[in-house]
Records
---
Amino acid sequence: MLTFLPEILTSGELQIGLLGLVGGFCIFLGGRLFIDQIKIFWQNLFKLQLSDPYQKLIKPNEGLITVVSIIGIIETITVIFPKNQWTNSFEIITSLILAIAASWLASQLFKNFFDFYLLNAAFKSGQKISSELLILFKWLANLIIVFLAILIYAQTHQINVFGLLASLGIGGLAVAFAAQKTLEQVLGGIVLYLDRPFVIDDYIGLPDGTFGRVESIGLRSTRIRTSGKGTLVIVPNSSLTQVNIENFTGAKKLMSILYLKFFRVISSEERALIRQVIINSSNDIFGIDSRNTEVTFKNINSLADVEITQAQVAFFILGTGDVSMELRRQLLDLATQSITQYLKEYGIAFEIEEPTIYVDSPITI
């Protein structure tokens, strides 16, 4: 029967048939490989979703990442379209929105990275940790993100940023010579804002005997309501940057009360060890008054009517601004994790009763 094939099929048709078979076989293999790669990709993606960086960095910002991705796709489509007046205007607006959204996303990712990783690394370094320096580092990082977003946007739209800054610098010199005293006071206000030796409602004392409550901090001057007479003293900011300021509100302490419940009665030797571990864990945190850390023990009956030991730990967080106070609370949480790890190494099992109680400690003026 094969002898009749040349009469039915030409050599060209046979070649096409063979090529079709080979092509189909290649498509089949390629499809199988593609499907296998898709499966591997989804498995890796599922593992990534369970990983620690994904849960701490990506998952809290999934909505913002989606928005930035959609804006990026719209921006790409706008660039592909033929150029005209309408598309150019739309592209400029879209690029500006993309730059703002991307810089906000970068800021949020850095915030999560700072809270979950950098704070932990700074705490584990074993050195005294200044919360003010950490806040300054966080502020500078956000400033760099904004600067890079402006620079990239300007470069992609042919805007000469450096020429603009140079022009502003020449004009700024002229303004500086014309309003030297006013500019000095404004710079003093910026220094007070960054350094924060006091904030509104703080009670402060100055070397000239002025004592009172800060009512407002402006660009040029600070208003202080004096105690007793009730008069309003207006002090130039440039003067406040050059004198010693006594902040009485800074003496305020926030007491953090933590309860540890052990699963058995703790001996006196173990109590001494627990007390030493707790004090050592808070020594390296700048802003925690470890000298006044209090640890008290008492025996109680559990729900199963078994006698166990409970410890009350009182940490004293020195008063500063709200942002710095929140940062010190985070550092205190890291210290609590360190205490848990150390005591487990000594075979002392316990659980932390929730929630942690925060109490304002009164100050004496």
---
Amino acid sequence: MTHKDLKEYKILILEDNPADIDLYKRRLTRQDAAKFDLTTAGTIEEAKKCTESDQFDCFVIDYRLPDGEGLDFVHHLTQKFEDSATKPAILMITGQGNEEIAVAAMKAGVHDYLTKRSISDGFFVRPILNAIQRAELASQIHYYQNELERSNQELSDFTHTASHDLKAPLRRIISYCEMLEEDAGPKLSDDEKSMLSRMTLNASRMQNLINGLLSYSLIQSEKEEPEVTDLQKMVEDIRDEFLDQIEENDAKVIISALPTQQVYPMRVRQLFTNLISNALKYRGDETPLIEIDCNIDAEKPVFRIKDNGLGIEENFHKDIFKDFKRLHNQEEIEGTGLGLAICRKIVEKHNGEIWLESEPGKGTIFFFTLGMEG
């Protein structure tokens, strides 16, 4: 490859020592790995002016400068390019190696840290090219992350809008079915009554599905502030809301010493509600027993909801958290297949994990962590 075919990079060298500048220029011009268009500045203020009038692929910054420390300029650069789609590479140079300076530089956003001794020994071009490649890769990752977030938000917004717009006409369909059954019931044949009953049932199932989709989309789109929340009181309140079902099933729900923790309260209420509802819905032959507790001695508090219900075969333990995944058909047990997917999304929103232990006929234990700490 000829010199004119080499890729060219614009470099700003922030250094006040003429001898060091000459050294850097010699190292960067007497090589055949890349072409470098070099600009020099002796002070932070001069370097700031250069960034206003030109764009650079890489900044080589001395740690000590006449009008401040090199880290001051690094902070300026990170703020300047915070919202930029492309971010430059940054190298910090010091007279002597210092671990504390190196750590502070990396935390500030520097891609590499070199001593002037290593540059004198010829170790300069490759670190610059590596830093530029890392900066380019980071910019690409940042771009794709933004595109993914935008795409997910658009999908969430569409799901929310579609679900919301479908609720009103569906309510009217259910109302018309109920009115027809009330007004014309005696005149209908058994087959017509059966068809009307199936129509009402399927409309109700569709309504539950739409409500599930709406809840699912709100996890991402709804803006809720985290709050320090008494989870013991929250779950006791949820238990009271299930009182009719608990009495109907002669169930027992035991809640033991749940912590106070910073969470998104509406979402966590939905999380516990879904898991308690499942424990009641998928009961076995025994009288339902649901135990809710938390291991606060773990690195992160681990919540546990245990039941003595139907249980789940091991080959479904991972799939059960996928969207629309159901293990029973509608005729056996009503459901949308979104309940545990919603639980997973809520736990992920809290930077947590959810998993289960279960055997058919021996009940299920759901475990989850909530990454936020009170």
---
Amino acid sequence: MSEMTALIRRHIREMAPYQPIEPVDVLAKKLGLAEAQIIKLDANENPYGLLPEIEQTLQNLRYVHQYPDPESRALRRALAEYHHLSAEHFLVGAGADELIDLVTRLFLGPGDGIIHCPPTFGMYAFDAQLQGARIISVPRKPDFSLDLPAIRAAVLKHQPRIIFVASPNNPDGQWVPPGVLQQLLELPLMVVVDEAYVEFAHAFKGYLHQVPLHDNLIVLRTFSKWAGLAGIRLGYGAFPRKLLPYLWKIKQPYNVSVAATSVGIAALKQADKLHALAAKIRCDRDKLMASLQRFRWLRPYPSEANFILCRVAEPPGAGALKQHLALRGIFVRYFQTPELQDCIRITVGTPEQNEILLQHLQEFYVPNPGVES
């Protein structure tokens, strides 16, 4: 170890890096394929891209030569109108990821505890580790529901400060029932509900409207999924009012760009069209689910998000399947963890992309008949 690297905080030297997804141009170059040949079903992105109205907003941007509003006032007013909630509850960030980071920095210091319920989104534990926090792991049940008795016991024993729960959860797509959330809110800790995929749920409308009713509830959302703005990096959270002065203190002053603010406002103006597109993705998801269930060697799990988690139940397993698809320009997310053995997660693509995926899934197990006609 060099003298300079020895100065780095020990917990950062020792922690594992987060593994992000690679973009289309990088994947295409690796495979020697044209970008148009890549079918990217590994990052839960919206396959339909930008609405024309939002694309027009990008083309007509103003004031990009000046710093953006540090308080994102126009966007927060638009969010307040959209959600029928006071603008004083909202904070906007460069993706929901920035808000997750802000929450961990607000509540956690070295040795403080966070309840982590794997399998779930990895950024919760990653950002907590950056603060030197203790990760108190309370795995989900085999059906991916939260283990409430184990969470209560962990809270009593370790006295953590926060718990993050995704609803719908990534990677399985289940949402947190109201009764479960109520029991979490009765615990002496901050409850952060990540609703990145809420727009794709059939009946679940989310818990953002409940934030004013609880002093220990935070709800996060993003424009990345339903609005197709993953590359813009724009998310927002609804927070108890008493927390906002402290969040304003620690956030970067110009964290949300002029471009992100403008397209966020444009997206909210086109909310009806975006919800119609989300409904189409829900329909495509249900059709894809029915098709995946025909494969004897796949175990797809019910989902309320824009993806479907599948367990590969027969050899050669999920790793070989991921490689088979990748060589053909189709990318899915592969999991091989204690909670997710031999699993892949498939983002719902366009009908054409889904059909190509299904064709290559069928080819994979041709020598061992595994598809029922």
